[in-house]
Amino acid sequence: LSKKVQAIYLWWHKPVIDQELLQSLPNLKVIANSGVGMDHLDLKLVATFGVKMANAPHAVSSSTADTGMALLLASARRLVEGCHVAVSPGMEYYEADFLGVKVTRATLGIIGMGSIGYKIALRARAFEMNILYHNRTRRKEHEEQLVGAIYCEKIDSLLQQSDFVMVVVSLTPQTHKLIGKREMELMKPTATLINISRGAVVDQEALVRALQAGVIRAAALDVTYPEPLPRDHPLLKLKNVIITPHLGIKTEKTTRMITEEAVENILAALNGLPIPSEVLPS
Amino acid sequence: MWYHKPVIDEELLQSLPNLKVVASSGVGIDHLDLNLLSSFGVKVSNTPFVVSTDTADLGVALMLASARRLVEGYQMAVSPDTEYFPADWLGVEVSGTALGIIGMGTIGYKVAQRARAFDMKILYHNRNQRNKEEESAVGAIYCKKIDDLLQQSDFVMLAVTLTPQTHKLIGKRELELMKPTATLINISRGLVVDQDALVEALQNKVIKAAALDVTYPEPLPRDHPLLKMKNVTITPHIGSATKETRRLMMENMTENIQAALTGLPIPNEVL
Fold first, then answer.
1. Which residue range is the domain that position B174 belongs to?
2. Which GO molecular function terms does the record list (chain B) (predicted)?
3. pTM of this prediction?
4. Is the reported ipTM for this assembly greater than 0.90?
5. How many domains does chain A have?
6. DSSP string, A142-183
């Protein structure tokens, strides 16, 4: 059977692609990933076996942007806490002082202005939010104008001005622990950190300390390291933290679209044609 | 007046001979008997516009939270029993779907502005049609018949005022017209929905889910079926619950009270 395998469709990082697996599949031509992140793959290793790789960058962007906005709003308005209050057996009346923070006309700082980051900017603009962004490269002027986004060449400037900081980068050696103690201390004490990229982009220990000490107001994380977190992890118990189980792309429509994209990539590879979303080792 | 307290009845009004004004927090005044107050010569004010953006924000927050199963997801993420996240655990898409807004006042319109940025198709039903510019600014299509809106929407958002005409506006008939994959979101008043019909519709999968910032009563009795359903998200009437807006509401109410006490025109008088 192992000689027949020509393509692997990676679903949720499984199977694990290591030396052993690659050696056992001599006719493997392509690995197609579900989703856009490729940080779980050793791209160089795969390339040494002459196997091509592809991701699914297009299908994910709207759905992930929606998740980012869902987390921003849920955290700002204390939606999860509110639900618990509303269904709690001991509750007799609604507290008049249950308050969240305003989203409309607040300042959103987007770190990572790729396809997903840009879609977030489009959505946030409809909430009249002031949009700052930090990115490896600056976007074109008309792209900035469409969403009213202001470029912050220095991440510090974005962190100091934002009420909501949304992290939307790919995980690379450069973005590993991008948000640490220093960055969180630059943030406003009333600010919220939202992470929809990868858990390892945030220094989790530093985040726990920052939240406990009130250095930042709250955090909303669709991604952690690892996933799921160990059941005794402090992040699970903090009131001002919302954690979701990597919902980014988990809708019926998007998972279907991702699979269609992956199939397109696989068929192209097997037919010796150019692969639409090929990923090369850098 | 804050959160409908104190209750304004004949007894209270008779005991306060020098009462000149009742300043109510928020925009809804369905909890006040306007005719009764008028008969005692007492003026009434509300805080109409200051709550609009926060309420619209919460409407969208509820739509996203319900569609993407955020609260359920959180519970899974923190549950002591969770060992891994199942690969087939899915929610429904928001971007690119159809939103039907029932009640296109200030709040309904702000919901439309926000939803448009999610590439949503926007349908609306209102006593009056908005003008062409307002419609095209948000890409909203008018549905003169509520049935048309109900049949085409993936999300139905209620943003009407509670009046005798909107009481139980959404009942068994309306719920059955909705798609079985649709979600009902209520940010208006609990009484706009026939709650018993809603429970039945959710139990029988006539609609997919509901997200309610308002119920009748508030809070619901602790044994109410809505509190136990997985596909129901309930928040404790937090539509206007942000520090900034509450502050503005207080300033507004104070302004109205001062105007009434000095015999000047009341900025937000309700007649």
1. 51-79+90-232
2. glyoxylate reductase (NADPH) activity; hydroxypyruvate reductase [NAD(P)H] activity; NAD binding
3. 0.94
4. yes
5. 2
6. HHHHHHTEEE-SSHHHHHHH-SEEEE-PPP-TTTTT-B-HHH
